[in-house]
Design goal:
Blueprint (H helix, E strand, L loop, with lengths): L1 E5 L1 H10 L4 E7 L5 H14 L3 E4 L1 H8 L7 E6 L7 H10 L5 E6 L4 H14 L3 E5 L8 H7 L8 E4 L2 H10 L3 E5 L16 E6 L7 H6 L2 E3 L12 H18 L4
Helix pairs in contact: 5-6, 5-9
């Protein structure tokens, strides 16, 4: 199955991870700035005849819009997803504590891409999403994720609540976010195996998802807005987990 990669970040990430999967890469011949020059040096060495000059009309047709930065690629779709069990076992074998991001009902591709980007930055082992009521990885997600969509394992499950219970049985503590919770994200220990559970903006988590969480926490809000964008909220929680883990290395 082929996919379209749009923009410098997405294409360069694939060049680093799996250049052989890039079948054709098109670049804007009229763009002669330093960023394009650096990209072409990297791409020419890795791609050879698979690198093609193109005009703006061709790039627009491939990408479906003009926000391509002058770089569009056709590539084989990568499959980096694993099973929840494999992720937990890999963490145990490497003597680390698994860190999951569970997204319930995040359907906007921009939000999903931003969540993948922050998950990669915070060292998340896998992102878990439901098969239904969720965005999937497409060109928009890949561009917003700035390369994270190429390397972050995304595990799609048929029944999210059942999968959450499997995580709990394996020792993963599931922390959901709720504006009315008594404890804040800064009041709990996130150094063990943890899954941060986020709901869609506006609706939040579904009832069963919330009830399945082991604990609910809130993100302290000091201003007039009531809540944060789901990707920003994910970043707040995941980086608090990372902060705690760096302060208390796994033993």
């Amino acid at each position: 199955m082929k996919q379209i990669l749009v923009g410098f970040h997405a294409v360069q990430a694939r060049l680093r991870v799996d250049p052989d999967s890039l079948k054709s890469v098109y670049f804007d011949l009229g763009r002669r700035d330093r960023r394009m020059g650096d990209f072409l040096k990297q791409a020419e060495e890795a791609l050879g005849e698979r690198l093609h000059a193109a005009d703006s009309e061709r790039l627009h047709k491939l990408a479906g819009h003009d926000r391509h930065q002058g770089v569009v690629a056709l590539a084989d779709k990568m499959t980096v997803a694993r099973t929840i069990t494999e992720v937990i076992e890999d963490a145990q074998s490497s003597k680390t504590k698994a860190l999951f991001l569970v997204l319930d009902g995040v359907t906007d591709p921009h939000n999903f891409g931003a969540c993948l980007r922050v998950a990669d930055g915070a060292g998340v082992d896998a992102v878990v999403i439901p098969k239904d009521r969720s965005a999937s990885i497409n060109a928009t997600v890949s561009k917003v994720a700035s390369g994270a969509a190429e390397v972050m394992p995304v595990i799609t499950v048929t029944n999210l609540v059942r999968s959450m219970r499997e995580m709990q049985e394996a020792g993963v503590w599931l922390i959901g976010t709720d504006d009315t919770a008594e404890k804040s994200i800064y009041d709990i220990d996130l150094t063990g195996p943890v899954g941060i559970v986020m709901g869609a903006e506006g609706e939040g988590m579904r009832r069963l998802t919330k009830e399945t969480c082991d604990e609910l926490v809130r993100i302290p809000m000091q201003g007039v807005v009531e809540s944060l964008n789901v990707s920003v909220a994910s970043g707040v929680c995941l980086y608090e987990a990372l902060r705690q883990r760096l302060a208390k290395p796994a033993t």
